[in-house]
Amino acid sequence: MSGSTEAHYRSTINRAYYGAFGYIRNRLAIFVDHGSVHQAVISSLRRALSVQKRQAAARLEKLFEKRKEADYEHRREVKAHNCHFWIKEAEDIIKLFDQAEKANI
C-alpha cells in the first residue's frame, strides 16, 4: 500500500473491492443494462450451489458496504490497519471463488 494519508486509505479500500468484484464479474460474465451490476454479481454468488461461492457473496457484500463507506462517509476515519484487513479480505474472496470454480461447483 503506497501513501499514508486518509485519502490513500480510502482509495485502497475502493481498489480492494473493485479488484475482487471485477475479477468475479468477469469470470461469471455478468453484464447488466439496468440495475446494479454489483448486486447482480452478489446475487449470482448467493444463488450458487457452492458453499464457497455463497461465502464469497456474503464477504463481497461486506466489502461493498465498506467501499461505499470509504468513498462517501467522510466523517468516518479510515486507518492503515483497516486497509490491510480489507486487502486481505479481497484476496480471500477471490480464493474462495477460485476454489469453487476449480471444483466446478
Automatic annotation (TrEMBL):
It comes from the Bacteria. Gene3D superfamilies: Nucleotidyltransferases domain 2. This is HEPN domain-containing protein.
